[in-house]
Amino acid sequence: MPRDIEPHLDPIDIDDIRPTQITVGMREVNRKRENWRERSEREGIKYLENHILPAVLGPKKRFWIVDHHHLALALHREGVQKVLVTIQADLSDLSKDEFLVFMDNRNWLHPFDASGERLSARDLPKHVEDMADDPFRSLAGAVRETGGFAKDATLYSEFLWADFFRRRMKVPQTDGQFEDALKKAMHLARSEDARHLPGWIEGGH
Predict the structure, then answer these.
(1) Are 23 and 134 in contact (CB under 8 A)?
(2) Is 35 or 155 the better-scoring residue by pLDDT?
C-alpha cells in the first residue's frame, strides 16, 4: 500500500515533473497561457498557490503529476520554472515496472496517443514539453467550457469525451473547422449516445 504522507508544498522545478499522459489539447494549453499572461503580474504567486499540481512520488523520488497537465505545459512555455505539488501517494520504494503497473491499475496513467491508440506505459514522455497535441482533447475541453457536459472528478474524463468525438468526426485542423466541429460536438454531447460518459447532461438539446 502507498504510504500516507504530508502534502509537499515546497516549489519544485517544472523540469523535474513527469507526465502521466502522452497528449494534451494544445488549444487548451494556449488558452491557459493567455490566462496566465493576463493574471501573472498582479497575482502570479497567489495563482500558483491556488493551482497546485496533484502528483505521485515515484521511483528515484520523481514527481509524476496525475492532473493539470495542460496548466503545467502552459506555465512551462510561459517561462515559469517552479510549481507547487501535493502528493497523492508515496510509491518511491517500488521498482519502475511495479510502479507503472500500480499506477495503471489505479487509473493514474493515460498512455494513449493522438490517434486514441493505447501505447506502453514506457512510451510516456519524460517532460511536459514532450506531450503531443490531440485536437479532439481540445475539442472536448471546449465542449465542457461551453456547457456541453459537466466537469467530473473522474481522472482523464475529457479523454473519454475526446475519443467519443474522434469516432464520429473528422479532425478539425483550421479555426473554422474547429468552430464547426464544436457545434456538432455540442449536439453529440447531449445525445443519448453519450449517456455513458462522465458528466453527461440529460435532456440538454
Answers:
(1) yes
(2) 35
Helix, strand, or coil here: 178?
Answer: helix
CA distance 120 to 105: 14
pTM above 0.85, yes or no: yes
Q: How far apart are CA 204 and CA 67, in angstroms?
A: 28
CA dist 128 and 113 (Å) reads 14
What integer is the mean pLDDT of 173-184? 95
CB contact at 8 A, 144 and 159: no
Domains of the chain: 12-132 (3.90.1530.10), 135-194 (1.10.8.10)
With b for 16 or more beta-carbon neighbours within 10 A and e for fewer, the 111-135 pattern comes to bbebebeeeebeebeeebeebeebb
